[in-house]
Amino acid sequence: MGEQEKLHGKMSQMWKIYKTCMPDVASAYDELPMEVYKDGALSGKIKRMMALTGALAHGCRACILYQTEEALTLGATAEEILEACAVAISLGGTMGAGETTRVVQFLEEKGLLEELKRDN
Asked: How many beta carbons lie within 10 A of that of residue 66, not counting itself?
């Protein structure tokens, strides 16, 4: 397991502990994302990639890894995720570019960049 995958796993563990300690806050918090990220005029996958772009521009490492994983779960390809990263780089400059390397490492650890690297 790679560094970003371990980090993502550790953050998920700590969030579960927080939810156990603060169930009312966690329950209230969980309601909004469940509503926001469901399919509507935009698919949940597109919404997760939008959230990834915002997370990259703001430099939230937990959000970056979480939104990348959620987008992958909803069927996003590595190429789609990297295009979302490009939007973040355009919006966030150096911050977006620097944080995009975290996504690249995460996708690399999952073996999802091999085909793109071969094609380019």
From this structure: 19
CATH homologous superfamily, domain 3-35+44-110: AhpD-like (1.20.1290.10)
Both structure tokens of 2: 């790679």
Domain boundaries, the chain: 3-35+44-110
The answer to whether residue 118 scores a pLDDT higher than 90 is no
pLDDT digits (tens, 9 = 90+) for 99-108: 999 999 999 9
Segment 34-39 long-range contacts (CB within 8 Å, at least 24 positions apart): 37/70
Half-sphere exposure of residue 113: CA atoms within 13 angstroms, side-chain side: 13
Tokens of 67: 């939104």
Q: Is the pLDDT of residue 115 over 90?
A: no
Position 79 scores a pLDDT of 97
Pick left, alpha or beta for residue 39 (phi over 0 → left; psi -120 to 50 → alpha; otherwise beta).
beta
